[in-house]
Amino acid sequence: MGEDQLTDSTTAAGPTIATGEARPAGRGVSVGSALRGTGRPAEPAQNTIFDVRGLRVFYGSFQAVADATMAIREHEITALIGPSGCGKTTVLRCFNRMNDLIDTARVEGTILYHGTDIYGEKVDPVEVRRRIGMVFQKPNPFPKSIYDNIAFGPRIAGYKGNMDDLVEESLTRAALWDEVSDKLKESAYALSGGQQQRLCIARAIATSPDVLLMDEPCSSLDPIATLRIEELMIELKRDYSIIIVTHNMQQAARVSDRTAFFTVDVKQTGMRTGRLVEFDATDAIFTNPREKQTEDYITGRFG
Amino acid sequence: MAARAATPSTADLVRQSIQGRRLGFGDIAFPAALLLALLFALLFLATLLVDIFAKSWSALSGRGWSVVSNPLTLNAETAGLWQSIMGSLGLVAVVALLAFPIGISAAVYLEEYAPDNRFTRLVNTNIRNLAGVPSIVYGILGFTIFVRFIRAVGAGGGVGGKNLLAGGLTLAALVLPIVIITSAEALRAVPQSIREAGFGVGATRWEVIRYHVVPYAAPGILTGTVLTLARAFGETAPLLLVGAATGFFSTGSGNLIDKTLGPYTALPVTIFSWARQPGADFRSLTAAAIVVLLVVLLTANAAAIILRNRYERKW
């Protein structure tokens, strides 16, 4: 585990780290109740939500990510940055077992989520995904009404409360309610790209997740829509822990509390494997990186 | 303009270079040859249609609706297509009941559940090969398997197993690979991002398929199945081997089970047998039967096109 010195979560806490605000009580399932009692016992650091240890990802015989270790904290925005092919999206998709959908993908190492290994034998990936929502690179609303886009997740999860209220609340939190309140029955495809992406965020938070994973959520949006999503992320981190993959370093610097920098190592065989170089408070990564590679990347000398 | 002619300006040079068309032989001859090929193909179709309609005119104008509504007889002046049309509809119903649930299920398995490995690819390739097997081979298959099986279980219905059920089973086997292929294509057209969206909010594979993938693929599946039914409706050769003949008539009496297990005929088979009868009356009657068949097939194709244009989703 060569990166241990880079990812020491107990000493690297930056000034911007939010101190465990309480989640609003009320709706939703108690997080982790269904997961607890499985996997290995662990003693995570205070308010660490994901303890990633020795994560390696393979597609067939191709190794996409080498040995990443990092501790991700609650109520923070953690940014994963790095050049194309560095495995940051692959790592993100490990957090809600989305890589399970790829036949050839294989994940090694552990990701402790509130102390339980989400790759443990007894873990149900469907339950993991209910607690760890995802927003994708390209807005991907269902070809249904705006209302049904939001209601689908809660409905299949057996939500018993007032669905109209939940839809309104989710859309309001995603800063979309004012724009769509009078056309909830219209197709989600009638919305603009930025609105669609906020709809996808609303859909993700409608199931009361604990964590939001965002895979380059602004890459297909214009600057104004991007700004709205960024404001939204900062708003949402009071209630959620957010992990975001971004190509945009300014975006990482603007919104995130901690940043993981990945790079890609090209072997002689041509195999390109992503590697976590440095994980630290965002301020430290952007003003005083410990690694030369990080500095070269953030100053634009490579990548 | 003439005053500046001594040194041509940039504007003049540009105008000279971009004006005037330089068309070579190939620029004219190639599209002309392609157009000719197209016209040649259309000419055949037009000739066929004109010929059929001209020949059918005396029967259709002289007899009118009775060509369709009269029962089959060997008298060319009164013979009609009623049992043939009913027989063909019965066959299509059996095909729809059997081939669609099985074919669509197989497609959902192949596209949504089967791992992408060598075995799955082998199965896929072979389904495509099966779709290309000549229909007479399916007739033999129907005769050796379905007719004998139906006879063996005592459901032969007085025709030794060569009944409507055997015909329907044979046609179902014939179109099954096509149903699987078109349904699989419709399922594949649903983008992976939609599946990920479903999984992302905590849906199980079943829920993703049930609430998203299959509903979104349904228009494409439906279009494919309508075209498949049209194919079954027009198929002749395999039916000749599994009992469809003008020698047997499924009459208007009897319940549905008796009819299904009884003798039958089909529209294209009737065309085949009428075409072998002598006399101008039968020639015209044959042409009229072809017109009826073409009207049914073109209606089915038109319905498929309308369905596709109306409901197919652009991703």
How would you characterize this protein structure?
The complex is a heterodimer of chains A (303) and B (315). Chain A is built from ten helices and ten strands. Chain A is α/β, with parallel strands linked by helices and 303 residues long. Chain A has a domain at 2-9 and 47-141 and 211-298: Rossmann fold. In chain A, strands 5-4-1-2-10-9-3-8-7-6 form a ten-stranded mixed beta sheet, with helices on both faces. In chain A, α3 runs parallel beside α6 (193-206) and α4 (163-173) crosses α6 (193-206). Chain A starts with 47 loop residues before the first strand and ends in a 5-residue tail after the last helix. Residues 1-46 of chain A have low confidence and may be disordered. Chain B has a domain at 86-266: MetI-like (MetI-like fold), CATH 1.10.3720. Chain B has 13 helices and no strands. Chain B has helices at 10-18, 25-63, 66-69, 82-113, 118-131, 135-152, 164-188, 192-200, 205-234, 237-241, 256-260, 267-275, 280-311. In chain B, α6 packs across α7 (164-188) and α12 (267-275) packs antiparallel against α13.
Distance between the termini of chain A: 25 Å
- The overall pLDDT of chain B, averaged over residues, is 88
- Pairing-aware structural class of the strands and helices of chain A? alpha/beta
Helix content of chain B: over 70%
Helices of chain B, by number, come to 13
Relative helix content of chain A: 25-40%
Largest sheet descriptor of chain B: none
Largest interface: A-B, 26 and 21 residues
Highest-level CATH class of the domain at 86-266 in chain B: Mainly Alpha
Q: What general outline of chain B do the C-alpha atoms trace?
A: flat
Q: What fraction strand of chain A? A: 15-25%
- What structural class results from the helix and strand content of chain B? mainly alpha
The overall strand count of chain A is: 10
Oligomer: heterodimer
- The portion of residues forming beta strands of chain B comes to under 5%
How large is the radius of gyration of chain B? 28 Å
The major sheet of chain A is characterized as: 10 strands, mixed
- The number of strands of chain B is 0
Shape of chain A: globular
Return residue spans of chain A where pLDDT drops below 50 for at least 5 consecutive residues.
1-46
Number of helices of chain A: 10
